[in-house]
Amino acid sequence: MDFDLESLVNVEQSFYDEGYKDGFAHGRIHGLIEGRALGREKGFEMWEELGFYEGFALMWKSILEAQGRREDRAANNIRHLLDLIFQFPRMNPSASEPSELDIPKLFRQIRSRYKVLCATLGAKPTLRAGGSSSPTGDVDDLGGTQESHSADGKNQVWQIDKPARGEGLSF
Amino acid sequence: MNVDLPGKFELVAELEGHDDRAWHIAWNPTRNLLASCSADKTVRLYNFSSSTNQSDGTTNGLTFTHNTTIPTGHTKTVRAVAWSPSGKTLATASFDANIGIWAQEEDNEEAEDSPSGEWECMSLLEGHETECKSIAYSSTGTLLASCSRDKTVWIWEVHPDSDFECMGVLMEHTQDVKCVAWHPTEEILASASYDDTIKLYLDDPSDDWFCATTLTGHGSTVWTLAWEPLQGGYLASGSDDGTIRIWRRLPVKGELRFDCVAVLEGHDRSVYSISWSPSPPSVVVEGEQQCELGLLASTGGDGIVLIWQITETTEADSGKTVIEHKIVARIDAAHGVFDVNSIAWCPRTGLQDVLATTGDDGHVKVWKIHV
């Protein structure tokens, strides 16, 4: 009688391997889905902020042009800011041409330019979109006393003033 | 083991007047004027003059008189003051996130020392989002740097007529920035932060300031910075961990590199402020070259003021340079039980052994040291 002694001895290992392979394949699919969702969310947050800066810059650019101030410091800063925003990728880098761009660093540069521009123009609203203005998810408690634009009212959506039934939710 | 230190302190003046803790002091580089700022939102200016005691013929007394109090108009504590190198402008940094630029009205006074004219606000620099902690003018006076709890360091260019243009906003630190200090001759800016690091910034010719290097090593918040005043080859930093570190600038072309060459321990609590005074020219000793780098004064939460003598020794055979330090003078409880917040050496010629301290008691004390 020819037993396959090898596979008998390794039976535990082979079940483990089988399970691992299955799980890995499954996880791969789910990971991809989750990753895509996360990327969409983060991309949305980033562009929410960048779009604000771009719109702000374009608006001031046309105001300055209407006032005829082309060579002002403000105009230079606006041009710089728009240049930097333009450098921000709008397409995913493909596998054949990986991107060397340091995104957080570019983001910081854009933010700094925006602040310099605000200082030059004399305007400074603080951007508040859901309480965080950085893609890394730090909650910057900026504590600004100036007016805040809640870009999409996220922080106003669920305001629970009184608990639904008189008492707090305690279990 | 109680060894008598070679240096002795003499209290020259104790100036009261602030109603709340005094945060910072600054000596005017060209006039006999001392400025102090406080949590009571004012800046007090003191005149001083030295008088020679005729009977001895040798002693030099210093008399301080209160010149004026500027009620700044800041809505919160004034945290720091800085004089421009010309001595004509005073910058104030406040917890209300604004920076005030003050100058005296033009008065046809001949004498430089005499008080003249009201101090008025020439400009208000807004931009920081939270408390502004420190400001500093560069050695040429064309640049002003400020830092704040909002983790940013702002660089402003000074134009004529008190016009300030924002040159850059640096967001490299990850926490509250406590102090900024300019190199004594070049345009290199150092900033110290709650994130335990010191960052150095350079100006890129394509008009952008960037962080050239980061110095790590301190175990806690770095509160204060002081450059070696003659050539800027060394940077000293005082930290919440009670130590002072000395960093040497390496002569590497094309990039900025620093190494920590000494750790000075002597304080039990946080070191809040340090000041480096320039030294007499170097002394050549047989076989080795010794360069006196001056006296470093340090103070902090333990109320003690320490004066360190810093010497750079180059071994003739190996060419290695080593930093030696020793404490030459000490005052315990300089402001009684209160924290000492700021210390500064007087930059005026003939008064290099004079230093001023200020603390949570709201008093400004001026000391003379005999080494």
UniProtKB/TrEMBL annotation, chain A:
Q: Which InterPro entries match?
A: Essential_protein_Yae1_N, LTO1_adapter
Q: Which Pfam families match?
A: Yae1_N
Q: What is this protein called?
A: Essential protein Yae1 N-terminal domain-containing protein
Essential protein Yae1 N-terminal domain location, by residue? 19-57
Indicate the family of this protein.
Belongs to the LTO1 family.
Q: Where is this region: Disordered?
A: 127-171
**PANTHER family registered for this protein in UniProt:** GEO13458P1 (PTHR28532), ORAL CANCER OVEREXPRESSED 1 (PTHR28532:SF1)
TrEMBL record, chain B:
The WD repeats are found at 15-56, 71-102, 125-158, 170-201, 215-247, 340-371
Gene3D superfamilies, alphabetized: YVTN repeat-like/Quinoprotein amine dehydrogenase
Q: Which PROSITE patterns does the annotation name?
A: WD_REPEATS_1 (PS00678), WD_REPEATS_2 (PS50082), WD_REPEATS_REGION (PS50294)
Membrane spanning segments where?
none
Where along the sequence do coiled-coil regions lie?
none
**What is the annotated role of this protein in its UniProt record?**
Essential component of the cytosolic iron-sulfur (Fe/S) protein assembly machinery. Required for the maturation of extramitochondrial Fe/S proteins.
Q: Write down what this protein is called.
A: Probable cytosolic iron-sulfur protein assembly protein 1
Tell me the organism: Hermanssonia centrifuga
Lineage of the species this protein comes from: Eukaryota, Fungi, Dikarya, Basidiomycota, Agaricomycotina
